[in-house]
Amino acid sequence: MIHLREVNTGNLREILHLKVASSQENLVAPNAVSIAQAYFQRESAWFRGIYDGDMPVGFVMLDDKPEVPSYTLWRFMIDAAHQRKGYGRRALELIFAYVKGRPGATQIFTSCVDKAGGPGPFYEGLGFTYTGALDEGERVMRRPL
Questions:
Q1: So what's the pLDDT on residue 124?
Q2: What is the C-alpha to C-alpha distance for residues 35 and 32, in angstroms, rounded to an integer?
Q3: For the domain bounded by 2-144, which CATH number is listed?
Q4: By C-alpha distance, which of 56, 114, 134, 62 is closest to 92?
Q5: Best exposed site among 7, 8, 27, 70 by fewest CB in 10 Å?
């Protein structure tokens, strides 16, 4: 059963041990960097571990700004050992449901590195489309909720 769990002192180390495949390391920041950034942007960072029962399989972080309203999938990763098992798709369905419940939410954004092996096709399969914009060299994508 896939679910999202708050990251705290009890599970921090297991989330920090999750890694993408070596060929994907240039596509997403390590979880330690993401969590550090979240603590410096506490007003908008919302992050969770992705679990299958009690087994951590991934990490997700949103830039959650209900006052704007603007919602962005800031970081998303599934551990290399757990990829291609449906965890990513199910986790993003949970994220979409969460964001739909946020004030004024009508869409969610993300961005991705445009390289071979990048997540663009995966996101497209979940309804994201490219906007034509760039954010720090990454292609911006949008999905209606």
A1: 97
A2: 5
A3: 3.40.630.30
A4: 62
A5: 8
